[in-house]
């Protein structure tokens, strides 16, 4: 998006803490009312940053294969240090057995003040590979996210599971042969 304050970049180790802050804050913003408040309050930035450092360390910065772990960030340098990551996406090989797709979108989060700006669309396009079946899991009650993914060709199938951290019901969505759609 021309004129946007952010830039989409491959993740690097120096951003692990910023990604952790974005992850925690975006979870709180997008899941309030879907997840008990005491669980949202329990997030620990240091633990989350350590996990993101490991994900980033193992990520492929220029993926061409569906099995590549990839993390891309939306960085806004006009924001204060420690708060510059305003969105991120993480994808890699699917975890489901049997596999129903070639790639899985593990996470796509943007801060609430970036809703409706096109940032999530940019991140989705940056993380997914063309002509690749992609699967994701989304909270069944998160209508905003489900509607967003539908715009890009994701369709819910019959699979459901309980997300272990929150005990919320998730549904599986699949996009066949790449994404379509718009902002």
UniProtKB/TrEMBL annotation:
Coiled-coil regions, chain positions: none
Superkingdom classification of source: Bacteria
Signal peptide: none
Domain N-acetyltransferase: 29-178
Entry-linked Pfam families: Acetyltransf_1
Keyword set, alphabetical order: Transferase
InterPro entries: Acyl_CoA_acyltransferase, GNAT_dom
UniProt GO MF annotations: acyltransferase activity, transferring groups other than amino-acyl groups
Name of the molecule in the record: GNAT family N-acetyltransferase
Gene source species: Nocardia veterana
